[in-house]
Amino acid sequence: FLIDRSIVTSSTIEEFAEMLNVSPRHARRLVMLYTGKTFKQYRLEHRMRVSKELLERGTETPNAIAESVGYYSYKGFRKAYKNFYGETDIKKTCKNYNIMLKCLCK
User: Are the beta carbons of 27 and 20 closer than 8 angstroms?
Assistant: First the structure.
């Protein structure tokens, strides 16, 4: 799904629209039409869904996952994750606790 692939790498609706080669207004309409959500809502849900899957897999550090889903810092990712899922700690989701410890000790 083009929206899923493009939305993670887009920080703004303008960047997303440019990737689709449409106006920002039309990009907003497309996202709403296909998802029923605003750009920001859908981007957050998609980022959280992908990050949770990656954490459960346990093959990457939380820092790497944060970066791969579009966060510039682990701290920002952790805050968004906590707000979205209501979990106080990512290690509850992380299957491989050794990877988590490696990440936090850096």
Answer: yes
Predicted confidence at residue 26, as pLDDT, reads: 96
- Contact present, 38 and 28 (Cβ < 8 Å): yes
Q: pLDDT tens for residues 60-74?
A: 888 899 998 888 898
Per DSSP, 40 falls in state: H
Per-residue confidence (pLDDT) for residue 98, from 0 to 100: 58
Q: Count of CB atoms within 10 A of residue 39's CB? A: 21
pTM: 0.76
In 1-106, which ranges are E strands? none
User: Encoding tokens for residue 30?
Assistant: 């497309």
- Pick the closest to residue 66 from 100, 39, 40, 96 (CA basis): 100
Q: Yes or no: say if 86 and 47 are a contact pair by the CB < 8 Å rule.
A: no
- The H or E element spanning position 72 is none
